[in-house]
Specification:
The chain has 171 residues and is mostly helical. The chain folds into three domains: 17-58, no CATH class; 61-105; 125-170. The protein is 64% helix and 8% strand. It contains four helices and four strands. It has helices at 47-90, 92-124, 127-135, 147-170, and strands at 17-19, 26-28, 32-34, 42-46. A two-stranded antiparallel ribbon has the order 1-2. The protein has a two-stranded antiparallel sheet with strand order 3-4. A hairpin with a 7-residue loop joins strand 3 and strand 4 (42-46). The longest helix has 44 residues, at 47-90. Bound molecules: zinc ion. Zinc ion binds at residues 20, 22-23, 25, 45-46, 48-49. Zinc ion binds next to strand 4 and helix 1.
Length: 171
């Protein structure tokens, strides 16, 4: 049985080969570009002929094509910028909430670690803690306090603590 490639539209009835309207060669369907607008779903010219045509057409229309591409890129860039601006605009509250949550989480973390540090400092009567006690409610800065005073105050605090522990244990 011969291949039915001689139908008027060049459509192979056995769906395996198709006649190219340009080079008049019968080629497998793979040799044709898909074209949904066509009945059989394939272009009427084979890929090779399409490429040759396009190359020839492109040679004649090079400038027009590159200008159109440049225009497209420009328009597209503006569109995409406009789109992301619109997104930010319509999600402003969402973005703000997200940033606020992030800030809050970090503040929380910072507060917690600083609390832990000062708790530890208080327990160990660290220089920083003692200087803090000494300068609290004054205009003095930590570095204004001489180390000898820090050491003396530390001893003082130790005594107070020892006494208060004894006091509460007596109750
Ligand atoms: Zn062809």
């Amino acid at each position: 049985m011969s291949e039915a490639i001689d139908s008027p539209k060049g459509v192979a009835t056995n769906a395996r080969k198709k006649l190219c309207t340009q080079c008049k060669e019968s080629k497998p369907l793979l040799a044709f570009f898909r074209d949904k607008s066509r009945k059989d779903g394939y272009a009427h010219r084979c890929k090779e002929c399409s490429k040759t045509n396009y190359a020839a057409w492109y040679q004649d229309n090079k400038e027009r094509v590159s200008k159109r591409q440049a225009d497209w890129h420009l328009a597209n860039r503006e569109r995409s910028l406009a789109r992301s601006a619109a997104w930010r605009n319509s999600h402003r509250e969402h973005i703000q909430a997200r940033d606020a949550a992030y800030y809050k989480a970090h503040q929380q973390q910072k507060r917690e670690s600083s609390r832990a540090r000062s708790k530890q400092g208080a327990e160990q009567l660290s220089d920083t803690y003692v200087r803090q006690v000494l300068t609290d409610g004054t205009s003095l800065r930590y570095r204004d306090v001489p180390q000898s005073l820090v050491d003396a105050k530390r001893e003082h605090l130790r005594v107070i603590r020892a006494l208060s522990i004894k006091d509460t244990s007596n109750e």
